[in-house]
Amino acid sequence: MKIRKDGSLLWRQLDDEVIALDMQESVYLRLNQTGTVLWQQLQEPVTRQDLVETLMEKYEIDEAQAGADVDAFLDSLERSGLLEKE
């Protein structure tokens, strides 16, 4: 899976945050530091487990917490039409 790539999705990183605007679906996202880490990973195809391991390493949290955070983030992206599954 990865972030959808097309001309209607615009995003920029400002310090530790990502601001994303989807002109097609009228979606505006402002991501915190954790969301920004995951967003960056999702620029290329990755698995859920890759994302979980990234959070575990970066924030020194257990797999259950990292998995819950990843699932919530991916669910939000999917509901917003921003996630592309391969």
Description:
Helices cover 44% and strands 24% of the residues. By secondary structure, the chain is an alpha+beta fold. Strands 2-3-4 form a three-stranded antiparallel beta sheet. A two-stranded antiparallel ribbon has the order 1-5. α2 packs across α3. The N and C termini lie close together (5 Å). The mean pLDDT is 94.
Largest beta-sheet characterization: 3 strands, antiparallel
- Alpha-carbon distance between the termini? 5 Å
Question: How many beta-strand segments?
Answer: 5
- Element order, helices and strands? EEEEHHHE
* Poorly predicted segments: none
What do the pLDDT scores average to? 94
Q: What's the structural domain tally?
A: 1
The share of residues in helices is: 40-55%
Strand order of the largest sheet: 2-3-4
Structural class: alpha+beta
Approximate shape? globular
- The oligomeric state of the chains shown is single chain
Task: Please indicate the percent range of residues in DSSP E strands (runs of 2 or more).
Answer: 15-25%
Number of helices: 3
Radius of gyration (CA) equals: 12 Å
